[in-house]
Amino acid sequence: MSENILEINNLSKYFGGLAAVSDCSMNVKKGTITGIIGPNGSGKTTLFNLIAGNLKASSGNVKFDKENITDVPSYELFSKGLLRTFQIAHEFSNLSVLENLMMVPGNQSGEKLMTALFKPSLVAREESAVKEKAIEVVDFLNLGHLSNELAGNLSGGQKKLLELGRTMMVDAKLVLLDEVGAGVNRTLLKDLGTAIEKLNKEKGYTFCMIEHDMDFIGRLCDPVIVMAEGSVLFEGTVDQAKKDEKVIESYLGRGSKLKEKN
Ligand SMILES: Nc1ncnc2c1ncn2[C@@H]1O[C@H](COP(=O)(O)OP(=O)(O)O)[C@@H](O)[C@H]1O
Ligand SMILES: [Mg+2]
4, 12, 184, 201: most buried by Cβ count inside 10 Å? Predict the structure, then answer.
């Protein structure tokens, strides 16, 4: 049994009287691509916001690599290797693809004014290292031909790839993907899946991904965790989830999306 990279214990988040996440407990094992599914409004995005430090928990705790990270702000988690992407891509539309990647915060000395003034050669060296890394990332994602294109001109799917690329500019350990496949065409979805698998196998990333597309989940994820009404309803393989009465019922209650595409 491999160890847990993420442990969520009795986590809750209230918005006024509504519990978006309610006494939720789950673990994510190191090295997995863990899927999170569930009907709309079941608390998936709120859960990611709590883990990634974008929202404060009402109660409960989150551990990352055995360390308590409850309510630790996102920029600190970023430097610990816990990264997330957003349901809606966050690109800088007026910057090129390469520049977008170079904007990902690192520990460059150039950010410090004194270094910039007194050690310009150090800054230049670091900048070229960041650029080299960015080129490596666009090549990895098959976006090399778009390096100098403005990010605002990319298709929805290419923006999602860029979003994934941002996680590759630092040494990520755990990446949370919120509907990274949504609105992405079939061909790009395949590329996205391949990139995720490669990052998992070759760079040791653990992924936790919210997704609706059961084919995409089925191809990538083991296990899958099903959420309903703010907590965990089921955990198992995708095939088991598809057959589970409780899971089917939770989807049917709200208009099923849990159908296989042919
Ligand atoms: N910032 C917020 N303020 C108030 N209610 C919210 C907020 N964010 C989410 N909710 C509510 O919490 C519930 C869970 O939402 P969400 O986490 O976005 O679900 P999912 O991602 O599974 O669709 C929904 O009822 C939603 O309306
Ligand atoms: Mg959501």
Answer: 184
